[in-house]
Structure formats: C-alpha cells, structure tokens
Amino acid sequence: MPSENMSSMLTNVKNISNETTTQHIQEQRKEYEDCLSCRLIGTATFWGLGTYTIYHSYAHNPNLSRGFRLGLAFVGIGFIQIGFYRLLR
C-alpha cells in the first residue's frame, strides 16, 4: 500500500512540474514577439535561400543525378515555406 501512495504522489509532482513548465514557456512566448522589420528580413532571407537553392539545383551542374536535383529542389521549397511561416507567425 505505501508504494501505491508513493507512486500517486510522484505522478502528482510530475503533473504539477509539467504544468508549471508549460505555463512558463507560454509566458516567455507572450513576452517575446518579433517586430515587423525582423519578420520581413527573416522572410526575405529564407525566400532568397530557397530561390538560390532551387536555381542552383538545376542551373549549374547538368551531371547531377535526377534524385539529387529533386532533393535540392525540395530543400529550396522547404526554405520558402519556412519564410512564409516566419512572415505569418
């Protein structure tokens, strides 16, 4: 019986700890918000990086395999999507 009480107490402590950590993270997110210029610069950076990656995946080395080119193109598309997320977040 004492082990059941101990395990329930540990479970309660874990739940309280998780709630406290979650609340702390949410408070930090509320405190920190990017200004518009920071978002625009971050968005432009990711869009430029994505465009650069897509362009260079097809333009410069025709000897690259098709799979490698597609992989680079998907990475570029990912960077562009991160830019949209950065802008709209």
TrEMBL record:
InterPro entries: DMAC1-like_dom (IPR028036). Keywords: Membrane, Transmembrane, Transmembrane helix. Residues 1-25 are annotated as: Disordered. It comes from the Eukaryota. Residues 34-72 form the Distal membrane-arm assembly complex protein 1-like domain. The chain crosses the membrane at residues 36-55, 67-88. This is Distal membrane-arm assembly complex protein 1-like domain-containing protein. It comes from Glomus cerebriforme.
